[in-house]
Amino acid sequence: MTYPSIKEWSFTPPLAEWFLINWKIETSVTSNNLTVSLKTLAWTDPSPTNPVYCRIWNTIRTITSTLSTTFNAWTNWFNAGSSELATQEIDYFVYLWWTTVYNTVYIMPSRIPYARTKTDFSTTNTNERFAPNASDMNQTDEVVVVWRFNAILSATASFNRSIPATSIIINRPIFETRILNRVPTKTNSWTMGVANGWANTIFYKYQIKWNMCYVNGSEVQTLTAPATHSIYYTAPIDCFRHWFAEDVKYVGAAQFWNGDLATCLMNARIWWNSSKIDYRMIGSVNSWNFYLWNFRNSWSITYPIWDSL
Q1: Residue 161 counted as domain residue
Q2: Last residue of a domain, which of 148, 175, 202?
Q3: How many Å apart are CA 266 and CA 282, to the nearest integer?
Q4: Going residue by residue through the chain (309 aa), what tens digit of pLDDT does each one get?
Q5: Which of 62, 145, 184, 303 is found 20 to 30 A from 277 (Cα to Cα)?
Q6: Are 202 and 133 within one domain?
Q7: Do the strands 52-56 and 59-63 form a parallel or antiparallel pair, or are they unpaired?
Q8: Domain containing residue 115
Q9: In this structure, are 150 and 233 located in the same domain?
């Protein structure tokens, strides 16, 4: 049996939500500028004779021309060049969106996977929830996630874009990142040093799943505690704090152990505090080895979910 090619179809094919026909994603870097493009299966731009079909919510759209967006160097796009994330791989979710302003399909990478309309994005290009061309959207224009790719942004002030040696492109709808590295800025009220006799394997990880961010890590330190006990770690993505009456919210619990791992010296309450994860001690203590192993916390990056915030 011989099947007709895409260009020979005389009808618009049925599609499941979020899916496309005859498409691939392409990422490229030229002069430190990143371009994300929609291509056909033949690696050509869509055209009237070789279109790409996509379903955006309840309507099937036909793409018949070049579709791409470019992120130039010298800008901290998505806050990806922060001290926490600069030079680290970041997973980006790519949306297609039908703009009722211009009656056409736009392509929009973003760090968040849960958006549905313009109200979920920011129009500030250094914001973590930024989406390009969002200023051209009506408030009710709907978007769909269709794929994911990874990229790196260098630190200030050049903010050069690059593609990792292992480029991972997922050509299907996906709503979570891989487990990624971060380098949080840590501030504390202790005098800190390496705990003698204990291996200090330090790592910090995070993962975004839909509208939740999960963090974990490990470190061993010697601490001399003053009257006020707190450690702050900057977070890989901010909480949507305007839902809260205040910036500080309780999000979980932790324990601080002696270097021999036999004695829990102090309990801690974990708070969300102005874009930082705040570990607050309960009680008082003098000098001891601080063992924070595989600490795991999560918080909503959209709205309060009270059993996890």
Answers
A1: yes
A2: 175
A3: 7
A4: 444 455 545 556 677 777 899 999 999 999 999 999 999 999 999 999 999 999 998 899 999 999 999 999 999 999 999 999 999 999 999 999 999 999 999 999 999 999 998 888 988 999 999 999 888 889 889 899 999 999 999 998 899 999 999 999 999 999 999 999 999 887 775 555 555 555 556 778 889 999 888 887 766 666 555 545 567 778 888 765 444 444 455 555 666 655 555 666 566 666 666 567 766 665 554 444 444 444 556 666 664 433 332
A5: 145
A6: no
A7: antiparallel
A8: 6-175
A9: no
Locus of tokens 């929609």: 38
- Enumerate residues 6+ apart whose C-beta is below 8 A from 251: 270, 271, 272, 277, 297, 298, 299, 308, 309
Quick check: 192 and 221 in contact, CB under 8 A? yes
The answer on 68 and 41 residing in a single domain is yes
105 and 236 part of one domain? no
**Cis omega before residue 254 (within 30°)?**
no
How far is it, in rounded angstroms, from Cα 75 to Cα 12? 40
User: Residue holding tokens 């330190």?
Assistant: 221
* DSSP structural state of residue 17: T
